Amino acid sequence: MDSISSDSLQTIFTYLDVGEISRKCLTNHLFSKLCSSETLHKIKLSEDYSIVEKRNKSWRSKAKEVYIESISFWKNVDIDYYVNNISDTNDFMSIMFEETLIDHAFRERKEFFTIELLFKGFFSSHLLQSIDPRRICKNFIKLLEKVASSSPKGKMSIKWILDLIVDDYQETRVYYHSKIEVLVGIYLKYDHLFIDDVNSNEWKEELSKQNGR
Q1: Which of 22, 111, 155, 165 could form a cystine bridge with 123, CB 3.0-4.6 A?
Q2: pLDDT digit string (tens) for 81-117?
Q3: How many angstroms separate the CA atoms of 161 and 148, rounded?
Q4: End-to-end Cα spacing for the chain
């Protein structure tokens, strides 16, 4: 450790989150100095939260504030409540929820994680057939586009989404097929965002059925 420069250590510390950096302060005097660095916390705010301004606060206090707020947000974000209680996608509370979720996703570079939450939440809902999923997708179109553009082939994998939402061991065949049906509808509506890499008879049959409408 003595042979590692302070700059190198700081670079290593940038791979830790703000909470881990704070805890490392107790290790020794060297770590305490590095973990208190304004430069390190400025980097963390920029890289982890896309924040480049602190107003009248120190970078360290701002980083702690944002970190705590982020932890609280993701811990308490209630996708299931949003999905199961949405009656109108133009409802004020729905719009506020969507905007806040998208803001956190983009700001913290958690687009893939957020899409995973949305699809899991929506497809686990008992209201699966009563809400048009294409309307939900429309509200999160910017998020979907960002995830698609960041995907290996410039489109999201339908197989990845299917693996997220399907539990072959627990759900009934009827419910499984209803998920396939809804996902096919999303794919056909937003085919520019998805790549069809699913190789299953159920998927192909439903795709052929809906394409023939």
Answers
A1: 165
A2: 887 776 555 677 888 888 999 999 999 999 999 999 9
A3: 12
A4: 67
| Per-residue 3-state assignment (H helix, E strand, C coil) for the chain | CCCCCHHHHHHHHCCCCHHHHHHHCCCCHHHHHHHCCHHHHHHHHHHHHCCCCCCCCCHHHHHHHHHHHHHHHHHHCCHHHHHHHCCCCCCHHHHHHHHHHHHHHHHCCCHHHHHHHHHHHHHCCCCCCCCCHHHHHHHCHHHHHHHHHHCCCCCEEHHHHHHHHCCCCCCCHHHHHHHHHHHHHHHHHCCCCEECCCCCHHHHHHHHHHHCC
Longest CA–CA separation in the chain, Å: 70
- Asked if 86 and 133 count as a contact pair (C-beta separation under 8 A), the reply is no
Phi and psi torsions of 115, nearest 5°? -60, -40
pTM of the model: 0.80
What confidence tens digit (pLDDT) does each residue in 146-189 have?
A: 999 999 889 999 999 998 888 755 566 777 888 888 899 899 98
